Amino acid sequence: MSTHKNGMVINAPGAKATPQNGQTKKLVIRPLKLKPQLPANFEEETWAKLQAAVWAVHQKQPVATSLEELYKAVEDMCRHNMQDRLYKRLQAECDMHISQQLAALQAQTQLAPAAFLEQVAATWEDYCNQMLLIRSIFLYLDRAYVMSLPGLRSLFDTGLASLRQHLAAHSQVESHILRGLLDLVERERRGEAVDRQLLAGLVRMLGDLGLYATTFNPRLLQETAAFYKAEGLRLMEACDVPDYLIHCESRIHQEQERCLHYLDPSSRRPLLQEVEQQLLAAHIGSILAKGFNPLMSGHRVQGLARLYSLLGRVGGTDALREQWRLYITTTGVVIVKDGLNVSMVTYSCG
User: Which helix (H) or strand (E) segment is 98 a member of?
Assistant: First the structure.
């Protein structure tokens, strides 16, 4: 240990220096004499930089400023209590872009349904990618301000709400989207090949916009019922029962496949119920009257199993049981009569 000339006791290397008189020196931090001031045009200049970036994203052009610098600009505005105005400005900028995109789609409603849906799908894909990039730029605003207030939606949800409002205002665009989707579904039911990937993407779009359950699905079920009602009436006249049952089985499988590949899972049960109602439940009496006896007399076990399975889906087992009882009764009477006739012939000949 050694003593420094200013009175401090210096310990061995690594030890703390202590004053000889045992007093501890205090470190005093004095406030700045002048509080830092933002430039007078800070908010406008910063927003102009951010606005230019948002415009570039919407136009699918390169963003001149780095994402790190843009993120820092958003953070600076939020830290200086400008977050409310920043949120409203961003919302207005995105709202204007959505309005322009829907106006462009409305000008293309004269296209064929499939071509128009392709344009809608491309617009939706661009929009989602753009909103994800914009959210990454304004992530600090989204996390520190928007998501902390219960009355505000996240930036992405705000964009979806704005798109939904503009879509409602452009009713012709919405109508063409729904009509085009329903037409593609019907074309596939009639045996045509359709773009299932296109259908799946647009169905997801309707789900994200909250339009699938409220707008699309009711019309899908309505048109499904009309389609299979007409088909059931036509085929019951044209086909024998075994072939008709095979067709019904195939139709149920096809609708299950549609729900698996592009329709929302919520449609599966009501959609199958419409198929079963129009093809099976509405024709239980005709199916049994026209087809049960031939199936029984022909010992067509597979056909009978299919009949039992399909009618079981629509609560038709009681009617099937009654038809079985009638068949047994009628067949038994015939057998008895044939037996008596044989006995009488044998007796008379004897």
Answer: helix 83-106
